[in-house]
Write a structure and sequence with these properties.
- The protein is mostly helical.
- Helices cover 67% and strands 2% of the residues.
- A two-stranded antiparallel sheet has the order 1-2.
Length: 490
């Protein structure tokens, strides 16, 4: 027992030695404007100890009271420096950074220390200092280091503590978040995004919808466009923004074309990973409808690519990304049902398929059927566009009688059959066309008869029908489309 007590006493004494030194230096700061080197070393020692949970749990309020005194003095001295009255700026910046590191380590996975620091007002003082640091030159090495550490501290303070999150949000939203998201330093952007995401909740989404706060949303998307590897920015958009269709609709109107493409690519990445048939986490149906309406309004912009003068027309790229998103959404049962019943979406898809198909026949361009990849680069954004259109049409007609009839009335069946060919500009075009015919003819004798008559008149290629597993038969004076009978093995 005595041995165990002595083992526990050693860590306590080690921490207490540092704490006594810290208290003395913090108390005597007012007597001199110059920070003592031993004060910096003392805080560094405590920072090192706080890497271990044992020492974090042993920490008492007096440690954080001393750090509060140091930070308050640092704010004063840095303010003097901005007026040219302090010649010890670097020393105070280094001390500030170390205080933030110490606080950051202290509250990691330790709600006790989070609560102590919040009750002492350390969040307010820390944010005040961070603001001072933000106003300094970006090329100031020590101020940038302190700025980064301050944001890391706020991030750790917010984790798992709703009171801390609300306190940080109150001190930082929206100005500090805007400053971080638009900062030139990538780490500042990343750490700022971490704090923003960690403090975020459903109630704050409502606050973001206020017109005066939309620039924050805009800054998140703009920052993600510059830093597409940032997980915090991606999660902010996918876990919070996309759950509020009204917010997305409001910000979409304010985005540049490049930013719209970025947002659509985020949505595509989100639904490609999570929105399967069985996934519980889906994009709201109102957002699905909004994206469908955007496609309807702008789909003809893709025809600009037929001129061949540009392969990166931004308005055309938006249409291509919208189609990619809609196609991927049809993989989700709820989204598919929503899109199948969305007014005139099917009509729009057939119309733009007809226009691109006609454009490809009028002149040699990106929409022309090709049997050689030399005609168009694989990386061209329009590669696969017609195939995706037919994929969308096929899925919209899946087990949907009304949509089968719409395609019939719009004379879409001959158009789809005309696309049942190998096209290197549209990988899997033939397969999607076959799938579309299958969905159009399933339990639909009228559509079957249309195809059968086309084959009899030579308007439909028998080999194409055969590749679909279909054949035309005449029964009681009527032409019927039937499944090919399996030939017996020879």
């Amino acid at each position: 027992r005595c041995y165990r007590r002595s083992k526990m006493a050693a860590p306590t004494e080690r921490l207490n030695d540092f704490v006594l030194k810290l208290e003395w230096y913090a108390t005597n700061l007012k007597q001199s404007g110059e920070p003592d080197l031993e004060l910096l070393q003392t805080i560094q020692g405590i920072t090192s100890l706080f890497r271990e949970q044992l020492y974090r749990e042993m920490a008492e309020e007096n440690i954080f009271q001393s750090l509060l005194k140091v930070l308050s003095k640092a704010i004063h001295e840095i303010e003097l420096a901005s007026k040219g009255a302090c010649r010890l700026l670097d020393a105070w910046l280094q001390l500030s950074a170390e205080c933030f590191r110490c606080q950051r380590n202290a509250c990691a996975n330790c709600s006790k220390n989070q609560c102590i620091m919040m009750n002492l007002g350390l969040i307010d003082v820390s944010v005040c200092l961070i603001w001072r640091l933000n106003g300094m030159n970006d090329d100031q090495q020590f101020s940038l280091a302190a700025f980064r550490c301050g944001l890391q501290y706020l991030g750790n303070m917010a984790v798992g503590n709703r009171d801390s999150q609300n306190s940080i949000w109150k001190c930082t939203f929206p100005e500090l978040f805007m400053a971080c998201l638009n900062h030139l330093d990538e780490k500042v952007v990343t750490y700022g995004a971490m704090v923003f995401f960690t403090c975020f909740d459903t109630e704050k989404v409502i606050e973001l919808q206020d017109v005066k706060n939309l620039p924050v949303v805009h800054s998140v998307i703009r920052a993600y466009r510059k830093l597409p590897e940032s997980e915090w920015l991606f999660l902010t958009i996918t876990s919070h923004f996309l759950k509020c269709p009204e917010l997305v609709e409001n910000i979409y109107a304010k985005l540049s074309n490049q930013e719209r493409i970025t947002l659509l690519e985020v949505i595509l990445a989100k639904i490609s990973v999570t929105d399967s048939v069985t996934s519980k986490e889906t994009i709201p149906l109102k957002l699905v409808e909004f994206l469908a309406s955007c496609f309807q309004e702008t789909c003809k912009d893709v025809l600009k690519l037929a001129s061949g003068t540009s392969t990166d027309d931004e308005e055309s790229l938006i249409v291509i990304r919208l189609l990619d998103v809609l196609c991927e959404m049809t993989c989700n049962t709820k989204h598919l049902e929503c899109l199948q019943n969305y007014p005139e979406l099917l009509e729009t898809a057939i119309n733009i398929l007809r226009l691109t198909h006609f454009s490809g026949k009028q002149s040699k361009n990106v929409f022309t059927v090709s049997h050689s990849m030399s005609q168009i680069e694989v990386s061209h954004p329009a590669v696969g566009f017609k195939a995706h259109l037919i994929r969308l049409i096929a899925n919209l007609c899946y087990k949907h009688k009304d949509n089968q009839e719409k395609v019939y009335r719009l004379d879409g069946i001959p158009l789809i059959l005309d696309n049942c060919s190998i096209d290197d500009n549209n990988p899997f075009l033939n397969q999607w066309a076959i799938y579309a015919i299958r969905n159009l003819t399933e339990q639909n004798e009228k559509n079957q008869e249309v195809i059968a008559k086309m084959e009899r008149q030579g308007l439909a290629d028998y080999s194409v029908l055969k590749s679909m597993g279909l054949q035309v038969e005449e029964h009681d004076g009527k032409l019927l489309l039937k499944s090919l009978k399996k030939e017996s093995a020879q």
